[in-house]
Amino acid sequence: MQIKRIEIQNFGRFQNQTFNLQAGLQVIYGLNETGKTTLHRFISGVLFGFPKARDTQRADQNDGGVLILEFEGQTYRVARYVNKAIQLSVENLTSGEQALDPEKQLQTLLNPLNKQLYQAIYSFNQDDLLKIYTLDPTELNEVLRSVGYPGTDEWLTNAKKLQRQASQQFGKTKTSKRPLNQALRQLRELQQHWNQLMQKAPDVQQLQQRQIQLRADLAALQQSQAQEQVDLQVQNKLQLQVPMWEKIQRLKKEIQANPNLLDASRQADVETTLQKLQLLADSSDERQEQFKQFQQAMHALRQIQQRGQTVHENIRQLEAMLRQLREKWQPDSIPAPLTVAQSKNLHAHRLGAQRFTTSGNTNAQKGAGLIGVLGLLLVLLGQWSLLGGVLMVSAGLYWGWRYWQHRTTDDQQISLPGYENWDVATIELMQPDAQQQALWQQQRRQLKEEEEQLIVRQQKVLTELRNLSRQPQADVQQLQKIHAKWQMQVQVQQTTQVQRQEYQALLQSQLNQLGLADVKDYRQRKLVDQRTRALQTQLQTLEQQLGDVDQATLAKFSALHPAHADTAEEQKASGDEASDKQAQQLQAELARVNYELTAFETDTSLETLNQKIATQRSLLQNEMQKYFVEQLSATWIQQTVEHLTQMQLPQLFKVASGYLQRLTQQKYIQIVDQQGQLKLKDQSTHFWTLDEVSRGTAELVYVTLRLAYAWQLKAQWIGPVLIDDAFVDLDASRRQILFEILGEFAAEGYQILYFTAHDNLTLQPTLDLN
């Protein structure tokens, strides 16, 4: 469910104002007295009803307003006013239907929430968090448990009330003052009386004699108790004062055995020096070692970066020289240089072509010359002129063919992988550049591999630096700032160590003046002095309590009764208990005799006694039925609540523990419920009760339980969460993590309305009330 628009007709300081809200995390910003809390209460009032005689300046019919809600693709208009004939109306703006039962329709939109559950989980402010600081540990634990499973408090209260009512009616007790106990006793007495009547009549004369005897025995016993009380009064007084006197003597001896108290002024100087040393806490070797590791890692990172720049520049230069080679020979790429076998084949091919050309030229010249001369002679002589012409033509053709063969032999190509369509001369001319290109390419590959290795090494060093700085997302610039900050801290710690050494020397001098060797001796002597002062205070109190009593008499009585004072007291108490028990027995028996005599004199009709027994049984049956109903109801409520919480609580604590881990940066990793008491578990598996952790941590537990419960209910209901200026007292890191968690809620469809008077929050969008 999303709140799209707020239309306030008249509420608090707002009259005829409209506010448009957006989905997700919505910051509502305003200074004090600008209406943030009023707007918060208006939203709760429209959804669940306005409190009587509150939040309105006048009791007019116009007090109230409208919320425009979006729920499951439908838009609803919820209007609520004070003192109008129709105080609540719900309209489906998408379908145009007006709800006949607006309360039921609104409950459908809010189901399964009610006002109590909504205020317990989805609406809270800084006052709710500050309230934690006024609670004692037991009350704080109860508040956090109620947030963990809200709505059960009222049921458990009713269960306790039912149990209390039942226990007030019936239970194990010596005095039998409870109604059902009394009714059972009366019924038993009536049945006993009936049995007596069924045995006809009792011996009245014997009862009367027993009555006289019991009264006489009781009077004698009371007189004896009074005399014993008088006789033991003095002894009791002395027995009460002797232990006090003896304790005074022991205290005096113990005080005399202790050394004299330290000089107050010199002790004050020692305490001042200790406080200064405590303020100048010694630097941690672990932190210095951590800084040393961090500094070494930063040096390694700089070396890697410098080497990376050098490798990158060499790669760039090699690629430029390779481009120049390719531009020199024009093709897209220069083939690989010839192997040794390919070079030998190329050389052999060239030598064979030269031999063929030389021998062919010599034979051709000779043959062509003879044929040409013979043809010329035949023509000149005029004989066989046709034959001579043919011979001359043949010689010319042969010469042309040999010339063409000579040209193609010189231009003959060789087929090698990568050198297709290349002539032999060009291949040989290119070999130095091809070899240079192969060398540069190999160097470039080696540099590329080194560059990749440098990137891996740099990533490892960055991971180590982030782990040391506990900043998993920090970049190089941030790590450099952390390094500078740590370096400054180490320098400050070194200065502090010098001051600490000076104060340690001063402290040793002050201890020597007191006659003590070191701080350990001083602390032990301080404990002894504290013990002496406590003994002196105790001695003064006992002497005041003893007053002006004659201590000589006490010393004499103590000497006569050194080991039997406690035994005499126990014997006196035992004798008093036996006398009281005997008196109670006599009184009980006398009461029974009186009752029997009275009953016999008044209840002469067996029928009347039967009627009384029947009436008493009916009354007892009704009261017992009521008792068992209350007991069973209380037991059922407790078992049901316990079952529900056991089903819900583990998952709730799991989600809340995840939030708490993030908020405390893994200091506390789990929230557990041990026998009804919430505890926090840290990384060392130590469990902390809520009164052992800081109030700020308890506040985070309070917030995480609310958020975890809201997260658990997201399958049933997702709606607006109202937060009124909470979290402002948290430190920046925890507040930022809380806003990240709220962002996750917003991503799931929750509408977060965060009311704040602080404008330093980098959250958008913002509704400004100023």
UniProtKB/TrEMBL annotation:
Region entry Disordered, spans: 563-583
UniProt keyword Ion transport present: no
Composition bias, Basic and acidic residues: 563-580
Matching InterPro entries: P-loop_NTPase, YhaN_AAA
Coiled coil regions, renumbered to chain: 180-224, 525-552, 583-626
One Pfam family in the UniProt entry: AAA_27
Domain YhaN AAA positions: 1-198
Record-given protein name: YhaN AAA domain-containing protein
UniProt keyword terms in alphabetical order: Coiled coil
